[in-house]
Design a protein that fits this description.
four-stranded antiparallel sheet, 48% helix
Length: 365
């Protein structure tokens, strides 16, 4: 069967597609809610494709696909296959360098905010990240520095005002005194921003954007719009990192169609168990028992205080899970470790009851 025929016969179902070259090597792995539409998009109306995608399409000579029951499973399977196969074009379409971090350097006359690939932990630095887009991090840091007037052009030149001070971009903390005290207050707010406990700097960026727009200064408004978007992206990524490091027990119940549900049990960013549930042959009470039993069986021995190193693939998987849960496309619940340790069947029973209420007219427990 030719490649064109394979593409034409693809189903409109969730799944993962594997692009192959003339030697049969898998060169790209992708996921789709509707396989046929997604794969066709590579070959039709391709004028808007990036150079990397155009190069990929020229090398596609064959393809395979794997069907999944849900879009969420397609996302997770894509992550798994990329990690295992390491296709050439998946690497090319991502930044090949390591993760990017924001470092607050504590040594020297005053603290400095830097972008770095190095995450070595030391007593003189505070790190935030990892982030997958260096350009977003650099834009966010530049926006914060410019907005807070700490864009020093000679941070190592002590006791001498830099050029940016004369341009109104630097407080003059390099000369010490009151400016340094104000600078330290700003750095405390920046650290609080990255921790997610004080978003006043983000609010100020949004205010500056709206002020520029009201004055019809659209160039400045666009600049602050980009800064605001970059900072918001960092805060979102910090939420994902925190969520992953907490290593939560997650129960997902996702509708497949009118009659079927998909039960997925996740520990942190790892799928421990999944099963298809047919509501036509299983009554709500039995579903309740089956789900509660699966939770107990798979989470009981997974309680751990050990935190694994956050790798690129683990963060990618965590982003998928976090985005899925916050999109409310399905129902889910978080099972505290304490319930597994104390074997709190009453709490678990009530939680499963609540989970099923959205699919069945269950009485109040």
């Amino acid at each position: 069967m030719s490649l064109a025929e394979k593409v034409a016969e693809l189903p409109l179902s969730p799944g993962v597609y594997l692009m192959k070259d003339s030697l049969g090597h898998i060169i790209y792995v992708g996921k789709a809610k509707q396989l046929k539409k997604r794969v066709q998009s590579y070959f039709y109306n391709s004028t808007g494709h990036s150079p990397k995608v155009k190069q990929l399409v020229r090398n596609i000579k064959d393809l395979d696909y794997i069907l999944t029951d849900t879009e969420f499973e397609a996302f997770m399977l894509e992550c798994q296959l990329i990690k295992e196969i390491k296709p050439m074009y998946n690497k090319k379409m991502k930044n090949p360098l390591a993760y990017t971090y924001i470092a607050v350097r504590l040594a020297g006359l005053y603290r400095q905010l830097e972008v770095t690939y190095d995450s070595k932990d030391d007593e003189h630095s505070l790190y935030f990240g990892p982030y997958t887009s260096r350009s977003t991090v650099e834009r966010a840091v530049l926006g914060i520095k410019e907005n807070q007037k700490i864009l020093c052009s000679s941070p190592r030149n002590t006791h001498t005002l830099c050029l940016n001070h004369s341009l109104g971009l630097c407080l003059g903390m390099c000369a010490g005194g009151e400016a340094l005290e104000k600078y330290n207050e700003i750095m405390d707010r920046i650290i609080a921003l990255l921790h997610g406990t004080d978003t006043s700097i983000l609010s100020n960026l949004e205010w500056r954007m709206s002020q520029a727009a009201e004055k019809y200064d659209f160039e400045t408004a666009a600049k602050y719009r980009d800064y605001t978007g970059a900072v918001s992206s960092l805060l979102q990524k910090e939420k994902v990192i925190g969520f992953t490091e907490e290593n939560k027990n997650i129960v997902v119940l996702e509708p497949m169609n009118e009659f079927n549900l998909k039960l997925i049990l996740i520990k942190g960013s790892v799928i421990l168990y999944h099963a298809k549930l047919d509501t036509r042959i299983t009554d709500p009470k039995q579903l309740h028992v089956d789900i509660q039993s699966a939770i107990a069986d798979h989470f009981m021995n997974q309680v751990s205080e050990v935190r694994e190193e956050l790798s690129r693939h683990k963060l990618d998987e965590a982003q998928i899970i976090y985005s899925y849960l916050t999109s409310h496309s399905g129902s889910y619940l978080i099972i505290p470790d304490e319930w597994m340790i104390t074997r709190s069947h009453t709490s678990l029973d009530e939680a499963v009851h609540e989970l099923l209420k959205s699919y069945f007219r269950l009485p109040v427990s």
